[in-house]
Amino acid sequence: MEQTLSIIKPDAVAKNVVGQILSRFEAAGLRIAATKKTRLSRVDAEAFYAIHAERPFFKDLVDFMISGPVVVTVLEGEDAMAKNRELMGATNPAEAAPGTIRADFADSIDANAVHGSDSVENAEIEINFFFAQREIY
Ligand code: GDP
Questions:
Q1: pTM, full prediction
Q2: What is the pLDDT of residues 23-77, one digit of tens each?
Q3: Which of 71, 88, 93, 122 lies 20 to 30 Å from 15, alpha-carbon distance?
Q4: Correct CATH for 2-135 of 3.40.50.10330, 3.30.450.20, 3.30.70.141, 3.90.226.10
């Protein structure tokens, strides 16, 4: 079974739509193997998004990700990584397909409701960033 990491970002947590978003994963046949609410420190967020360190939006991204609590989830199922990316929709909610999480819950490219691993290799790294193996079922 493939696993991937989802983060419900501070905007969606503040909107109180955590349950609605988790329901979409379950409705699509993905299982919640682990989940928790947490708040990233600046050091955590900079490390998690290190791949974007040179991008002009890096500081805005880090500032946004530490602005409030997030809900991190390990999703498990067949093609979990690609399935989650499909459910999320395009990075810019203005371009996200109707019915996707970002089309329905996101306000801007910064406050875009969810993060999802973009490869199976990155999923493993991102899962290990947030969870110990004993927390994943
Ligand atoms: P994702 O995999 O769809 O989340 O997109 P990326 O990995 O490319 O980017 C990570 C996050 O950085 C996105 O979810 C956005 O919140 C933010 N981001 C990406 N591109 C831009 C941009 O051009 N401008 C701004 N302000 N933020 C961006």
A1: 0.97
A2: 999 999 999 999 999 999 999 999 999 999 999 999 999 999 999 999 999 999 9
A3: 122
A4: 3.30.70.141
